[in-house]
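From the pipeline queue, job 12 of 40. The input is one protein chain; the requested action is below.

Action: predict structure.
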Amino acid sequence: MAKYDVAILGGGPGGYVAAIRAAQLGLKPALIEQDRVGGLCLNWGCIPSKALLWNAELVRLFRESEEFGITYDALHIDMGKAIDRSRQVVDRMVKGVEFLLKKNKVASVAGRGRLKSRTEVAVEPSGDVIEAEHIIIATGARSRSLPGVEIDGRTVITSREALELREAPESVVIVGGGPVGAEFAYFYRAYGSQVTLIEMLDHLLPLEDGEISRQLERAFKQQGIAYRTKAKVAGVTTSNGRAMVAVSTEGGEEEFAADKVLIGVGMAANTDGLGLEELGVALERGFVRIDERMRTSVPQIFAIGDVTGKLMLAHVASAQGVAAVEEIAGREPLPLAYEKMPRCTYCQPQVASLGLTEAQARERGLEVKVGTFPYRGNGKAVAMGRTEGLVKLVADARTGEIVGYHMIGQDATELLAEASLGSVLEATPRELGWAVHAHPTLSEIVKEAALAVEGEAIHFWTE
């Protein structure tokens, strides 16, 4: 029986990062993965979808090229090549992770792990047993469907199948107006599909600040993306490779015919068959319950990433992985603040946020001060011809701290690193506004939004 300091079930962005960090700290880790390392994010999520979204942006630029003095006789767009390129990107990244695991001397074990005891993991189908002082559950999550809606993988699909489609459907209905839905709506519209988004809550990207969500809705309308909010899918029927989606809205019942229906309504934890409940590992709504140190209800067993249901983002899983391993190594890491984790949506205009929305800040009784600055007031945005969007900062007037950063616009996700650092340092609008930002850059929008909290933005006039 092989013995290790820590056995990690799942090689996604939580699991492989935890394994590498464990090796760096002098622990002996084993990483158990039944598929390719990198998990859903690298293989069938974050990375391939961003490769495709970059293709979509290029397509959109070509369609708008006359504005920039570029014309052509004929434009040929091959979505199949975009898919091929996305898989090449994935292969390169997976090989990179495999290289890092090898160089850090992480034992990579092929197979599916199941807990035999609090210190033993059986690996299927080999039947090998691994003994470890600590176990980390990092098995991730999978797409879930709606009650009564069957995902057949052909007409009714998830993002997994969508990432393999080689031709854009003439029409597609996307159920779920969150980040997955918004990104695929932008992608398919860029390739010419007729797109309809269905969202049950009041706005697209319903977890974002209301002002940002409304801005995205306006942008999507201009792009020709139809959407229904406060709408519920009553049923989906398929026939001869086509689908009919019945939707209940405030205005009554509607039906939408489509070549494809993409379901993007959430995730379910991969906890089946792991032996967790038999060992007394507590679950909550199907997800593994953890404390601020990533410990489960069983002291030797930790859990990280999507399987915990905390915040289903790859960088959150990685942060949890590092925190879990450092706890195991006795380094007493600081607890993670989930509401201060950066959140990104990669359609164009991109949406990026961190911290409290304006409504949340008011609900908590904070004395709220808000500063906004539009992209159209920024020289770099004007030069790029991308003036759609804004940055909005929410500050607590009592403490002076910026408690919320909210952005929509071209490449807004690249502006979020400053917000993350500002959050860690408890930056105030005065400090952020005082910091010199290079000109011309989009980052100046963040500086001006900070100045606008006190009505001192330089490059925009408000009555």
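Job complete. DSSP finds 13 helices and 24 strands in the chain.
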